Amino acid sequence: MPGRNFLFVPGPTNVPDRILRAMHRAMEDHRSSAFPELTTGLLRDLKKIFKTTTGQPFIFPATGTGGWEAALVNTRSPGDRVISVRLGQFSHLWIDLAQRHGLRVDILDVEWGEGAPVERIEDLLTKDKQHEIKGVLIVQNETATGVTNDVGAVRRAMDAAQHPALLYVDGVSSVGSIEWRVDLAITGSQKGLMLPAGLGIVCASPKALAAREHAKCPRVFFDFGDMIKANATGYFPYTPALPMLYGLRESLDMISEQGLDTIFARHHRLAEGVRAAVRAWGLKLCAREPRWYSDTVSAVMVPEGTSGVDVIDVAFRRYNLALGAGLGRLAGKLFRIGHLGDLNELMLLGAIAGAEMAMRDVGIKIAAGSGVAAAAEHYRSTAAPLPARASMPSPGAPQGPSAGGAATPRAAVRT
Ligand code: PLP
User: Fold this and answer.
1) How high is the pLDDT of residue 69?
2) Residues with beta carbon inside 6 Å of ligand 1?
3) DSSP annotation of 173
4) Each residue of 110-153: pLDDT tens digit?
5) pTM of model > 0.85
6) pLDDT for the residue numbered 390
7) Which of 63, 172, 222 gets mutated to test ligand 1 (max ligand atoms within 8 A of its CB)?
8) 333 beta partners
9) Is the separation of the CB atoms in 293 and 146 below 8 Å?
């Protein structure tokens, strides 16, 4: 099919050309004397992404799932009791991973589409006078349902209960922030960092690092201790995924150039446009309440009697648009539009148009153009003021060095 595939799954996200170019390089000796410059710069700058000065980042050649595992095996022992909220497929999978490592998980089940019940967490912790509960596991942004949890509120609940459990946050589709005194924040490379999948990144607080002393879960590949020793001299305990590291270097530079606050604001504005489209279609999001709406992914419920699988299939085969599927018990009930990473308004309008056409093709009764119009109006009405226009040569004016080169003043006369 001519033209680019429209990639709107909530990860992997679009990799900017700048990052692709940075990754395209010959292999080199990862034990050379020049290599530590790359490692130390990455570890230093990752702290800014996690908004921490005291936390320690770890870069594993893995994915978000590897990050889950690394966070748990370095800090826990089989038989330890932890609390987790099951609010979608990813929190479900993390609980499964914890259980397979022998942890006893108190599972707080909620309807998929709802956020974490902070009061229930506080209640459990308050009653746990013996401090038997060792950790609270929260998926900050449940990518399967488009629900974002208030991690700050969970932190406050733990403080109110005066409980010493560690706070583990999956920030795979958000990036958990240590500023809320998260103890273990986990992310992957293929979402907000705009890279391919291939890195599992964990940031551990000093309290989490101290927990290693008593943690008896077996660990080799994911051992923080080996990583700390090697990283201290600028190296890795095994062969690092070089292109990914160079891509990460570029990604961190791009994020720093744009600024985290600007990036968060852009994600919110883009998400609001998608939500305006969903309202205009007369459809509902899986996230039940606005306070849980995710700025990185919207899960759109399809009407009874229709199937999200059909929408996704037609969008892909007819319009070259990749939408996210309903996962686990939500299979067929929805489709997801990822709106994170390297994106702009017109890219999203293309995805909204494609979703709209595919929905109409499979018989979902929505007005043609309704979602696109609503999102476009949102983007127009919230657009930033136009930056000052660069001056341009007047039409017909002589060009090039013989016309006086850079020293010739150029009039901005194009209308
Ligand atoms: N956690 C969340 C919130 C996710 O969205 C995903 C993947 O989409 C994962 C964990 C698992 O990450 P990975 O597929 O990189 O192992």
Assistant:
1) 98
2) 11, 63-65, 90, 139, 141, 143, 170, 172-173, 188, 197
3) T
4) 999 999 999 999 999 999 999 999 999 999 999 999 999 999 99
5) yes
6) 81
7) 172
8) none
9) yes
